[in-house]
């Protein structure tokens, strides 16, 4: 019975990989749907909202799992700057997982759009109907999407750095 | 090597030792990065984007900050839709249930010039946002012609470019004829306009859904339909030869005066497609004998200027649909949704300008500017 866990617990690993697929999917859906007038626009828009809400719910579950089960520690010999970069980028990822769906939801609210999911399920507005706010939130949603994607790529590069160059246990701790 | 720091030497050594791993990591970042750039259309300058069509609309009619890029001149109204129950046979949308829906709407003239004279903007549009009891929304933007002038978003873009006024203020006839030669459906639309009278008022016009949609009933059965809002006010035609001499806001004046006398009414008439009717081409009319269902009555109770009204800050996106109404495969439909959103986002970021149609205290229209 070692007190220190070597791997993330199963719920954390499940959430990580499910959300990784969903978040990458959302980023691609989002960037595609705003850049085409083709039939994909309508279909992708219809999926973007329920997927976004699902990401928000899973992110909240994930924060709870993380609060309950402490993640395994980083290797003791990891340089301080890499340690700091890891915790900052993880914090940023958590913030974006929660903020992006909320900003999208608030943006639709400020634009006077019904937040209708497949027609029937409706969510209440979480911001006043005000086009100035819609415009700001729309810009924020776009900029943060770019930041989110860049952070995910950085995260991926760092994971592979641990696996292929440092050859420590960090990648293994979250491997499926 | 006096210019080489020990750190850089370390780095050089590390690069040599780990070049395989480093290439793999670089590829693992570059591949999704490239896919993302591809998805965003950055690698594909030919992609038809919503921004391109919004740009073409701005180039055609000038940039008028704060206004819709098409149907820029308009007025709001509020009212209600009373379902008569017949629509429930076709669609399970709550709007066809027994209780009335509240309506926010907008009448508009065509084009992207918010201060142009009504006589120059001969297309009329009616946009609706219907909120069923319980809050389910259905938005629709309709024109007063049963057919559209182009069948695809690409043709729409080319039409905007071909008919763009040059320095003389008129489009280049050579470009217009070249477009029409390639687009018999647009020629047919122009002939339709020539052969049919214009309604004299917003209140006696019929407004058509433009695209086909798919209605699904409670049992899950789907049908393709188009719809029209058919006025109770008797049709009167406008003398097309007098258009230029009519008052700048004659359509809006007339609407305000009529609405002051009592609610204006339209019937929602749903037309069912028969097998073989095109459901993906808005330039082709369906035969007259198709089954029609009168699903209820729209009452326009009160007209409100855009600056004070509830419609200005709405995007009447035709893909905001309730359960029971779905899109067809008409390529214009997704394009309308995408371009309306681009237009909406652009104007939302611009300072709002006063509408050309303002109402005096007594209700009369005052021209702005």
Would you kindly provide a written description of the structure presented here, covering whatever features stand out?
The complex is a heterodimer of chains A (176) and B (369). In chain A, strands 1-2 form a two-stranded antiparallel sheet. Helices cover 72% and strands 3% of the residues of chain A. Chain A has five helices and two strands, in the order αααββαα. Chain A has one domain (10-174): Fumarate Reductase Cytochrome B subunit (Up-down Bundle), CATH 1.20.950. The radius of gyration of chain A is 18 Å and the shape is elongated. In chain A, helix 1 packs antiparallel against helix 2 (39-68), helix 2 crosses helix 3 and helix 3 packs antiparallel against helix 4 (131-166). Chain B has helices at 6-17, 19-39, 50-61, 153-162, 173-182, 184-195, 250-260, 331-348, and strands spanning 74-83, 101-109, 124-131, 137-143, 198-199, 207-208, 213-216, 222-231, 237-238, 264-272, 292-304, 325-327, 357-359, 365-367. Chain B contains eight helices and 14 strands. In chain B, helix 3 packs parallel to helix 4 and helix 3 (50-61) packs across helix 8 (331-348). Chains A and B meet through helix 1, helix 2 and helix 4 of A and helix 2 and helix 8 of B.
